[in-house]
Amino acid sequence: IQGTVLNNCDSQAKYTTVTDDKFDKRDKHWPDLKLSKADALKHQDFWEYQFKKHGTCCADLFNEEKYFDLALGLKDRFDLLTTFRSHGIIPRSTHLLIKSLKPSGQSLGVIPNLYCT
């Protein structure tokens, strides 16, 4: 259904810890910014959270590995930081949200769902 937010679709889902090349790929392109690389390797809570929250909602189409491959591919395809910067949206600065969303959405073809932290 259009407009439906899909989150946490399978509360019983299990996350498979990754190592070696798979870990290096995720850590390089989608790092856990709260942990050192060594701690992220031991405690993959960040990716587990992302998979359980979002990846479980497409489990009928993508297994866990394919979900992360898709997510990393979309990240490369839609360079959000460059898009935001080109519209004056810079990390750690303040913005008028309504003014910022329209040009960003036009570039992406959708209206992003942003929130402040």
From TrEMBL:
Task: Tell me the gene name.
Answer: S
> Pfam families given for it?
Ribonuclease_T2 (PF00445)
**PANTHER family annotated for this entry?**
RIBONUCLEASE S-2, RIBONUCLEASE T2
The UniProt entry's GO CC annotations, sorted and at most eight, read:
extracellular region
Q: Which family does it belong to?
A: Belongs to the RNase T2 family.
Any one GO MF term held by the record is: RNA binding
> Taxonomically, which superkingdom?
Eukaryota
What GO biological process terms does the UniProt entry carry, in alphabetical order?
Answer: RNA catabolic process
Q: What are the protein's UniProt keywords?
A: Endonuclease, Hydrolase, Lyase, Nuclease
Ranges in a coiled coil: none
Stated name of the protein: Self-incompatibility ribonuclease S7
Q: What is the lineage of its organism?
A: Eukaryota, Viridiplantae, Streptophyta, Embryophyta, Tracheophyta
Cite the Gene3D superfamilies for this sequence: Ribonuclease T2-like (3.90.730.10)
